[in-house]
Amino acid sequence: MALLPILRYPDPRLKKIAQPVVEIDERVRRLAADMAETMYEAPGIGLAATQVDVHLQLVVIDVSEDKSDLHVLLNPRIERTEGSHLGEEGCLSVPGIYEKVERAEKLTVHYLDLEGKKVSLLAEGLLAVCIQHEIDHLNGKVFVDHLSQLKQGRIRNKLAKQARVTA
Ligand code: GNR
Ligand code: NI
What we know:
The chain has three helices and five strands, in the order αβββββαα. It has helices at about 25-40, 125-140, 150-165, and strands at about 45-50, 60, 70-90, 100-110, 120-125. The protein is globular, with a radius of gyration of 16 Å.
């Protein structure tokens, strides 16, 4: 197992579109294990392969308090959504920034698990938010892209300033 470096916004590689997983081989299994370790260590409740510069449709999620509910989603597709919900989001690729984003309140997501089995999961609450946030990453989108241009500009300035003091 290994900790993987996480790309930081506005790295242009965060805009790449992830490709479907076509074969669940040792490389995919190792990537999922390393991503889970990286997510728990951060700590975070989700991580998309895009964030570790692998452009495959793979995400790991665990919204439990005690690391007891790991989900590995390959090729996830949102099939149905219901309602809307405005909630504060953060992102491991945008450290220290928290902003409200509007998302669907409930959703059904279809994906393959690591055994290649088709799964249909009905999600709400934080899990539903996280699934939408991670699928955005696979499509080259970060939560900041949902905000006004004014807020995006302020966030870029703040991150550039942070980068100067930590350098
Ligand atoms: O750890 C994370 N917390 C979080 C909180 C609210 C909404 C979304 C998230 S996902 C984030 C981890 C991350 O950046 N995943 O891509
Ligand atoms: Ni994120």
